[in-house]
Write a structure and sequence with these properties.
12 strands, about 40% helix, elongated, binds dinuclear copper ion
Length: about 350
């Protein structure tokens, strides 16, 4: 009768510990269905290297947690003072000074565990530090901007530079290396299902590698380093394309927006009036739009998203973005254009949507 509350408490504790164990392990599809930005269901070799360290460490920690908290809870409940205890209040309990065996034990066991965990951790760190040799990776240069991403493809053959923004396309089943840098503050490149995080540091180039999945797919990424007012709105997408789709995409992106255009056309004329020329690039013969401070707009109509993958790319959102960019993204270097006429803004929107 007297022990029942103890049993109940232990039962509750074990149930909670099991829930914690499942939550930490996250290997149950039923409890934890795949989410777009899960790290525990990686889709690449690099992601699996990390997960193969993370999973055993998590389970070891769960075992230690349950053991330590279990003993603690048992002791607290089992040896608590009860009414009618024979011992008088003023009587001190028996005094114990040290226990050599216990002290050596609880020093050595953690040392052994930490050292044991260091080996797979270091192995993983070394494996991820350098691109695996033997195969030439497909290289993409990634530059972190405030608050968007520029992707440049130096490996794409031809004279034209293939540059795009916020939507990274990669061929499926291929070893890729991303060379990361920043021309402003520190950002961090993170696509949880593809690999770990890597900082983009001004004045340095740091790389990240992984083999893209064989299956085409779309992956959500985001900046993982506080980088200013719109850090949380610095997102991007990674499209893993079937090789032939990737080739088709790259060929189109490397080409000019349109074969022929005139700055007298309503779209380009309105953009010149709006000052877009001082930040953006639109590639067509004789184009005055040659700047790369802002995202290149040469094929902006082909993108699914705008504004750092924050808004779906459609005429309404594009109009909203052009009119009041800092309202969508606080601190945006893209200024408001609400001083422009409706006709001008609609001409720009119509023009940009055509640039596929
Ligand atoms: Cu870039 Cu946070």
């Amino acid at each position: 009768m007297e022990r029942r509350p103890l049993h109940r408490a232990l039962g509750l504790f074990v149930s909670l510990a099991l829930v914690a164990a499942f939550a930490a392990g996250c290997s149950s599809e039923w409890l934890f269905p795949q989410t777009p930005q899960t790290t525990v269901h990686p889709d690449t070799d690099a992601g699996r290297i990390i997960q193969d360290v993370y999973a055993p460490i998590t389970w070891i920690m769960v075992v230690i947690f349950v053991a330590v908290e279990g003993v603690l809870l048992y002791t607290v409940l089992r040896f608590r003072r009860r009414p009618g205890d024979a011992r008088e209040a003023e009587e001190n309990p028996e005094q114990i000074h040290g226990n050599t065996a216990l002290e050596i034990g609880w020093t050595l066991i953690p040392v052994v565990i930490v050292v044991a965990l260091a080996f797979p951790t270091l192995q993983a760190l070394w494996a991820l530090a350098d691109t695996p040799s033997g195969e030439d990776p497909y290289v993409v240069k990634v530059t972190g901007k405030q608050w968007w991403w520029e992707f440049e493809y130096p490996d794409y053959p031809g004279e034209r530079t293939l540059v795009t923004a916020n939507e990274l396309h990669l061929p499926a089943g291929e070893l890729v290396r991303l060379d990361l840098t920043s021309d402003n503050v520190i950002h961090s490149f993170w696509v949880p299902k593809l690999s770990g995080k890597r900082d983009l540091v001004p004045g340095r180039v740091q790389s990240i590698w992984f083999t893209t999945p064989e299956e085409p797919g779309v992956y959500d990424g985001q900046c993982a380093e506080l980088c200013g007012a719109s850090h949380a709105l610095m997102r991007f997408k990674v499209f893993v394309d079937a090789p032939e789709d990737f080739e088709r995409w790259a060929k189109r992106q490397a080409g000019p927006a349109v074969a022929e255009a005139s700055v007298q056309d309503p779209g380009p004329a309105a953009m010149l009036a709006g000052g877009c020329v001082s930040c953006h690039k639109i590639d067509f013969p004789g184009s005055p739009f040659q700047q790369r401070q802002g995202p290149t707009l040469t094929h902006v109509g082909s993108r699914e998203t705008i504004a750092g993958a924050v808004l779906e790319n459609n005429p309404e959102n594009m109009e909203r973005w052009i009119r009041h960019a800092p309202e969508v993204k606080p601190g945006s270097t893209m200024p408001s254009h609400d001083w422009m006429s409706d006709e001008q803004i609609q001409a720009i929107v119509a023009y940009l949507q055509e640039l596929e």
